[in-house]
Design brief:
Distance between the termini: 44 Å
InterPro entries: Rhodanese-like_dom (IPR001763), Rhodanese-like_dom_sf (IPR036873), TST/MPST-like (IPR045078)
Pfam family, one: Rhodanese
GO molecular function, one term: thiosulfate-cyanide sulfurtransferase activity
CATH topology of the largest domain: Oxidized Rhodanese, domain 1
CATH superfamily of the largest domain: Rhodanese-like domain
CATH architecture of the largest domain: 3-Layer(aba) Sandwich
Radius of gyration: 18 Å
Keywords: Repeat, Transferase
CATH class of the largest domain: Alpha Beta
Strand order of the largest sheet: 1-6-5-2-4
Protein name: Sulfurtransferase
Largest sheet: 5 strands, parallel
Number of domains: 2
Number of strands: 11
Oligomer: single chain
Mean pLDDT: 97
Strand content: 5-15%
């Protein structure tokens, strides 16, 4: 079943047949890594499985070696998670969180797309929208019948540091930084050892993708905003980054929702960039 490849509203999600949908609870708090698990245990969408950023959507078990604070998991590890979750190709997968899709539903969405899964979407408005509509919730851990899944990640969806540096310097790439403006400018840096941004990067905070109610802006609004930044660049020339390759996926999702498809991710992002102190650092508005 294919309902959406980008976003799905709570009403549509709530009315899908149980056997046709897989909900993934991706709630996460950078300041309290265990909070998402506790919140899931206390209450979640009926039938939802847990997809934790640190445990399931990143490789935190091996040294980063320049891969950033949330290194991408191996395809084999993501395959194992999909198997345990009982994923099947005919399921509509819907990821949700409590942060407008930023932590970490959009990361799950992007990983699934990188693995070749098309019928995956983010719940627009997330957990808050579900509760607001008084749709049913449950508590405790969900165990689904396991399946056998083997996926491979499409390396064309990511950009390495050397290619990024060359592409930005030559003007071939447009690099969009999803962090809030004070972090982009280098006014503050609460997480990484160096403040600032990659020289040549432009700032598009992921929060700009959302309206006052925590839902994504309409596609035409997003398209107008991204086109204004892109100028003569095509969507395929756009590379996204953030602090550790998580909230940048929100910009990837927003562009796809706006019909601007084909942009890529610099997964190590700022934390990976500054792990090599020989790389350039810019401060201010760019």
């Amino acid at each position: 079943m294919l309902i959406s490849r980008t976003l799905v509203d709570a009403a549509t999600a709530a009315n899908l047949p149980t056997d046709d949908v897989l909900f993934v609870d991706c709630r996460f708090d950078l300041a309290d890594a265990g909070k998402g698990d506790r919140e899931y245990a206390a209450g979640h969408i009926v039938g939802a499985v847990r997809g934790d950023l640190d445990r399931d959507l990143a490789d935190m078990a091996t040294p980063s070696n320049g891969r950033g604070r949330h290194p991408l998991p191996e395809a084999s590890a993501f395959s194992a998670w999909l198997s345990q979750a009982g994923w099947r190709p005919d399921l509509q997968v819907i990821a949700y969180d409590a942060a407008g899709g930023a932590l970490a539903a959009a990361r799950f969405w992007w990983l699934a797309r990188l693995a070749g899964i098309d019928n995956v979407a983010v719940l627009d408005g997330g957990w808050a929208a579900w509760l607001e509509a008084n749709y049913p919730v449950d508590a405790g851990t969900v165990r689904r019948e396991a399946t056998s899944v083997h996926v491979a990640f499409d390396e064309a969806g990511t950009v390495a540091a050397d290619e990024l540096a060359e592409g930005v310097a030559s003007g071939r790439f447009l690099l969009l930084d999803a962090r809030a403006a004070p972090r982009y400018r280098g006014d503050i840096e609460p997480l990484d050892p160096v403040a600032g941004h990659v020289p040549g990067a432009r700032n598009h905070p992921f929060a700009d993708n959302l309206d006052a109610h925590g839902r994504f802006q309409q596609p035409e609004v997003l398209r107008r905003d991204f086109n204004a930044m892109m100028g003569t660049h095509a969507a395929e020339d756009v590379v996204h980054m953030c602090g550790s390759g998580v909230t940048a996926c929100h910009n990837l999702l927003a562009m796809e929702y706006a019909g601007l498809c084909g942009s890529r991710l610099y997964a190590p992002s700022w934390s990976g960039w500054v792990s090599d102190r020989s790389r350039g650092v810019a401060l201010g508005e760019g």
